[in-house]
Design a protein that fits this description.
- By secondary structure, this protein is α/β, with parallel strands linked by helices.
- It has one domain: Collagenase (Catalytic Domain) (3-Layer(aba) Sandwich), CATH 3.40.390.
- It contains five helices and 13 strands.
- It has helices spanning 102-118, 142-146, 152-162, 229-242, 317-322; strands at 28-31, 81-88, 121-122, 126-127, 130-131, 133-137, 170-181, 188-191, 200-209, 214-215, 252-253, 256-257, 304-305.
- The strands form four sheets. Strands 1, 2, 6, 7, 8, 9 and 10 form a seven-stranded mixed β-sheet that branches.
- Helix 1 crosses helix 4.
- The longest helix has 17 residues, at 102-118.
- The protein is globular and about 50 Å long.
- It starts with 27 loop residues before the first strand and ends in an 11-residue tail after the last helix.
């Protein structure tokens, strides 16, 4: 998706497309800070069985006395749910967003907006009543990770699975807090339907576009009932991970919609309106409550709470579970 921010043609939000560098990379949706780039989805690699994890943990020492989690804690509820991760490169500056409340408040506001639109919320993974957020420090520097560009989604999912964090009933939202140079321009990534597979959506908190000398706006909401830039961005990416927008939708184009520029899943956004005026499926004919039994619908998603009648998993969910993306950096250094 492309963006205009302060009258510049910038890719700052929903769905800026990024070409894939190799045939093994899963197509991804992007959100970011660059001119519009046409999407060139690569063929989807055949799913591979996830092996027995070779790594049981990564360095987790932090300069804090506050409790934090380095693994998925016991779930408060059963069912399909969204789990949040705060990830840093090996040399990253720790902002402690998992323990200071920013990520939890942002997730709450995102769900508040979704509830106002649908009457439902995403089912979050919680532990003792609070959002269960896992801290993950990756074994690579920010520079090494930045060099993989759009394959950061592969890198994150690789480590989520190889460290035995991944569960078969969960989608993962990763807040990556490392400096990240993005010539293509994006602030978020997720598997892009119909060929993309995976369990992970990522929000890039420190992405930088050298072409325009711009960064992704590092702004979380300050209110549980106000949805801002980051909240709209990651919700867009989560819906991609759920399998939306499907090709069978009447206004679908490369995982996005084309019928209204203020739709959450529109391929471009000009920055001239607030997220408060964003529509969730303008006209209800593409991805929410559209009434087509043979076309994926957010209203029937197994990740919603309350659980809908005839709840459905994302298309190719079993392929997503089996798939272990190769580590684009090349293994632990």
């Amino acid at each position: 998706m492309k963006f205009a921010w302060l009258a510049l043609p910038l890719c700052l939000l929903l769905g800026c497309a990024v070409p894939q560098p190799s045939a093994t990379v899963q197509p991804s949706a992007t959100v970011g800070v660059a001119p519009h780039v046409e999407e060139a989805p690569a063929p989807t690699a055949a799913p591979t069985e996830v092996p027995t994890p070779a790594v049981t943990g990564l360095p987790t020492t932090r300069d804090t006395d506050q409790p934090y989690a380095t693994e998925d804690r016991s779930d408060d509820v059963d069912g399909y749910q969204v789990h949040f991760i705060y990830a840093l490169p090996s040399d990253g500056v720790d902002a402690f967003l998992d323990i200071t409340g920013e990520i939890e408040l942002s997730a709450t506001a995102m769900n508040h907006w979704l509830h106002t639109q649908t009457g439902s919320r995403l089912r979050y993974d919680t532990y003792e009543g609070a959002l269960d957020i896992t801290f993950m420090r990756l074994p690579y520097t920010a520079e090494q990770i930045s060099e993989v560009h759009s394959r950061i989604n592969d890198l994150l999912e690789h480590w989520i699975k190889i460290t035995d964090l991944a569960q078969e009933n969960k989608l993962y939202v990763v807040h990556y807090d490392g400096f990240f140079v993005t010539p293509e321009g994006y602030c978020g990534l997720a598997p892009l339907p119909p060929r993309g597979i995976g369990q992970t959506a990522v929000l890039l908190l420190r992405a930088y576009n050298p072409t325009h000398d711009l960064t992704c706006p590092r702004n979380f909401t300050r209110s549980a009932d106000f949805t801002g830039f980051f909240e709209v961005t990651i919700l867009h990416e989560v819906l991609h991970a759920i399998g939306l927008v499907a090709e069978c939708a009447p206004h679908a184009d490369g995982g996005h919609v084309t019928d209204n520029s203020q739709d959450l899943m529109y391929f471009a956004y000009d920055g001239s309106y607030s997220p408060l005026f964003t529509h969730l499926d303008y006209g209800n004919d593409d991805y929410f409550d559209h009434g087509q039994a043979d076309c994926p619908d957010l209203a029937r998603s197994a990740f919603l709470d309350p659980l809908p009648a005839q709840a459905e998993l994302p298309p190719r969910w079993q392929d997503s579970l089996r798939n272990l993306p190769p580590d684009p950096v090349g293994g632990m250094q």
